[in-house]
Amino acid sequence: MAEMYDHTIHSRNTFHNGLPTPDSELENNKHRRPSLYATPVPHSNIAMLCHTPDELVQAIQQFTKQDDTVIPGLEAMQEHYSLAFQNQQNDHRCPAEDLDQLSFYFNIFDRLFFFSSLQNLCAIRLKSIEGHHAGQLDSHRSNWRTEVPPTHACLITISDLTTTKPPLPYQKRMKKYLGTLLHEMLHAYFEVYGCMCTEVCTWRYNTLVGIHGSSWQDAALAIENATCRLVGERIDLGRVDSLAMNWIAAKSMPVEGTLDLASWGMTYAEVRTAYDYYVELYHK
């Protein structure tokens, strides 16, 4: 059973220079939402004033379906990924916990799945995380914003697995790190570009993106499917466990058949198994 992912939803207002942005200023800048961050949000093909998470999901879905031949350096990326998981006895290999290597994969994933929209926006660290969390995403919009470097919009924390008992081999640690990295990058994407300029937009964000809401699941599925083609194997973003944790947080389990889990490539039994696992884990 994979570790769960920890995310808390916080209400957000639009700020500029640390102060709430007046409605009049928003009205005068409809074409571009002011950046919330010290680091400017890069220009990209994302509509900066998307008012629904579905528009952000569609951007990922469309981008990940593009012809592989238009992706620069794809073959070199695939070769590097393949070599990283060969020759288990190679003592000269870069450690799985090397931050430069994780940053390298961040840049690869950003190009392959997020059209370079997260470039220079996320700091990465490995750290022991309380509980059974695999990763965590903090931003200047969250209660833990003091943790985020002032030069970045978000901080991705990946749980250090070197103390796991029994110890995990290199390949398993690396795959868990990369799955967690991609999972948190998707949260960062919604956190940076998700619109909360009005109460309606805030409600949409919290409902559809939420901790791991339907929009997050749709985008995560598109990315997972694309990893098979672009990376060479499926990278697990922990979608089943994340949905199970949503049910636990809501203290309510939907009746079987009320959700179209098949559209996310899941079964009710899979999510129920994960749900029961975490319920038992937290009551020990």
Q: What is the element layout, followed by pairings?
A:
Elements: E1 4-6, E2 15-16, E3 19-20, H1 23-28, H2 53-63, H3 74-84, H4 99-113, E4 122-127, E5 133-139, E6 154-159, H5 170-193, H6 199-209, H7 214-230, H8 239-250, H9 268-282
Parallel strand pairs: 1-5, 4-6
Antiparallel strand pairs: 2-3, 5-6
Strands of the widest sheet, in order across it, are 1-5-6-4
What's the helix count? Answer: 9
Mean pLDDT value: 76
Q: Low-confidence spans: pLDDT under 50, at least 5 residues?
A: 4-49
Tell me, what's the shape? globular
Structure summary, number of beta strands = 6
Q: What class do helices, strands and sheet pairing give?
A: alpha/beta
Instruction: State the order of secondary-structure elements, H for helix, E for strand.
Output: EEEHHHHEEEHHHHH
Span between termini: 16 Å
Helix content: 40-55%
Radius of gyration: 19 Å
Organism: Mollisia scopiformis
Protein name: SprT-like domain-containing protein
